[in-house]
Amino acid sequence: MNGKAVSGHLADQQLADRRTIAALAAGDPNALETLYNQYATLVMTVIQRMVRDRQIAEELLQEVFLRIWQRVETYEPERGQVRNWILGVAHNLALNELRRQRRRPQILTSQPETAGGTGVPDDPLARMPDPGFQPDDIVWLRERRARLADALGQLPEVQRTVIGLYANGYSQSEIATRLHEPLGTVKSRMRRGLLHLREIVHDLEPDRG
Amino acid sequence: METLTEAQHNDIAELLPDFAIGALSDGDLWRVEAHLESCPRCRAEFVQLLDLVSVMAPVAPPSLAARRTLFERAGYPLPAPPLTAAAEPPAPVFRDRQRQAARITRLPARVGQIALAAAAIALFLLGGWNLWLQRELDDQEHLIALVAEPGNAYPLTDSEVATDATAIFYVDPERDQALLTAQGLPALANDGRYQVWLFTEGGSRVSGGSFVPEPDGTVAYAVEPTDPLDTYWAVAISAEPEAGSEAPTSPLLLGGWIQ
Q: Is the ipTM of this complex over 0.95?
């Protein structure tokens, strides 16, 4: 199957990403920029949700893409999509940061304030928005969100509420507190809802693995 | 490889949501990490959770400084932007609707020529026998004028897939009509058709009809939405079954902003 004469089926996102990964392995910096434009905000979201600090999140974001750039050979196609690999790398680095913070919280809280994570105080570029990527300017991302929203809309209200709060950054304990429900109830609603959601999304996206 | 009862498995699976957002204690962290190594089912659930978190409620994009620092550290420093870059973005082009619009405005001759050539080729190949053109042959001059006006042209550049296809969406605000021209569209099996999707600002979508491209992958398709065109902010194309779909059932092949 190639991108120009596809017989029967369109090439999917994985194909595009794997081409980019191949270019990255060949040392093409444009491939790094392609991946960055595609995934930077998604990666940023995963990290910032975890570390809850935008400056640290931006520093970790750079580490994620540097690691991808320097260790692209560690990507194993049989383990899943490029997108999932990138988000997994981000999650691992953010977890390591959280562990480090728990060991030495006082050091992190005493860091001088820098804008944007460059380590240069008062750098005007640090506060400048990146014009290269805006998640709402990517039509497919909007469509993907619409699909998930469609799927969420089909869930029972109690499951929808829990998953909606979770998607907006609340932990299960925080959701339990907010809803005045036992933690066990929230966990079981979350689990049933996620299983249900996956079935619906799978039906909505038959071409996706 | 660890062996767990279903109850033990479920116990760990219930921790996955908090694991995905870093809300677990160290004690639970290692249990989940160890379990994920050997449980494909939980790995799939974990990926779903990351997807949910990252797609449904994204945070603000990283700053320009983060991009610049990354590429410096990678050994490919980006050209220094002017400090007014927020108002006047630098030249490298990605999927930014303001810059798409700016590109069309600033390079009317080039884009206009390309757009006109693409549309003329498509129209020539179609012989003017598109259904819309059949109904309104007297609109041909108007169509040519439409594609010759660069301010009406919106290139569709977003894609969920690898593609060599290109498309331009021409908007006629006076007649509330639009023309989609495309080249390089792959042939679809099983009588499949390409379906046009129109998105409102709020993200809801409606179908803009469907078409089958010519054997050489070109098309000139008139889109006549039921609501005024200025209702819609974006347009995209996906491959669908012959009867069409209520929502895209395959990745979006091309998309772009039309406001």
A: no
d(CA A83, nearest CA chain B) in Å: 9
3-state secondary structure B194-248: EEEEEEECCCCEEEEEEECCCCCCCEEEEECCCCCHHHEEEEEEEEECCCCCCCC
| pLDDT tens track, chain A, 209 positions | 333 322 233 346 678 888 899 999 999 989 998 889 888 988 998 999 899 898 999 999 999 999 999 999 989 888 788 888 999 999 999 999 999 888 765 444 433 333 333 333 344 444 455 555 544 446 666 777 777 888 888 899 999 889 988 887 789 999 999 899 999 999 999 999 998 888 887 654 534 43
The reported pTM is: 0.57
Whether the CB of A148 is below 8 Å from some CB of chain B: the reply is: yes
Maximum pairwise Cα distance, chain B: 75
Please check whether residue B27 touches A, CB under 8 A: no
Contact A16 B162 (CB under 8 A): yes
Please state which CATH number belongs to domain B1-83.
1.10.10
Q: Which residue has the tokens 């392609």?
A: A34
Contact present, B61 and A41 (Cβ < 8 Å): yes
Domains of chain A: 13-129 (1.10.1740.10), 139-204 (1.10.10.10)
DSSP A156-193: -HHHHHHHHHHHTT--HHHHHHHHT--HHHHHHHHHHH
Domain residue ranges in chain B? 1-83, 97-257
